[in-house]
Amino acid sequence: MRSGPTSLWSCQRPESLLGGDWSDAALRDAWAPGVSYRPWAVSEPSAALKSFYDGRSRNQAGDPARLGQALVALANAANPPVRWAAGSDALRLVQGKIDSLQAELMAWRELSASTDGDFEFREEVATGAWA
Fold first, then answer.
1. What's the CA gap between 33 and 35, in Å, rounded?
2. For residue 126, is it within any domain?
3. Could you tell me the CA-to-CA distances from 104 to 17, 110, 114, 116 in Å, in that order?
4. What is the DSSP annotation of 48-93?
5. CB of 47 closer than 8 Å to CB of 54
6. Residue 25 belongs to what domain range?
7. 45: which of 12, 20, 54, 74 lies 20 to 30 Å off by Cα?
8. What is the tally of structural domains in the chain?
9. Is the separation of the CB atoms in 94 and 85 below 8 Å?
């Protein structure tokens, strides 16, 4: 029986990162094939993930200082949101998901409503995150 992670996405952190070295070189070394801390070979999904992150390195839309200010504002808000998107790139992704869900809801609206019974029922009031 094999011990260790069961997913190809799992990877243990190298000792250099455990020591607090978060430099670009240390992060690149974490992906080096054949290192002893990663007993399984690099899979296609993890190579694709590495490529994705390499392409975004130093190319983020966000400003860490502004993110910090926004997080403090959220922490101090009287009624903070249940969900919050940080940055214009995240807003685009969330809005795309909302649009997709809305289109799917509308496409299947008639079938969804067709399951109601022919009897009186009390409408439920949405509360919490559903309100």
1. 6
2. no
3. 44, 11, 16, 19
4. HHHHHHHHHTT--S--HHHHHHHHHHHHH-SS--SS---SHHHHHH
5. no
6. 15-56
7. 20
8. 2
9. yes
115 secondary structure, DSSP code: T
Each residue's pLDDT tens digit, 14-70? 444 444 555 555 555 555 555 555 545 556 777 788 888 888 777 778 888 999 999
Q: 3-state class of 106 per DSSP?
A: helix
Question: pLDDT-based confidence at 128, cuts 50/70/90?
Answer: confident
Nearest to 85 by CA among 97, 99, 76: 97
Is 34 in contact with 7 (CB distance < 8 Å)?
no
In this structure, how many other beta carbons lie within 10 angstroms of the beta carbon of residue 90? 13
**pLDDT higher than threshold 50 for residue 5:** no
Q: Could you tell me which of 75, 51, 71, 73 has the C-alpha nearest to residue 63?
A: 71
Which of the 8 DSSP states describes residue 129?
A: G
Asked if the structure places residue 24 within a domain, the reply is yes
**In one letter, which amino acid is 129?**
A
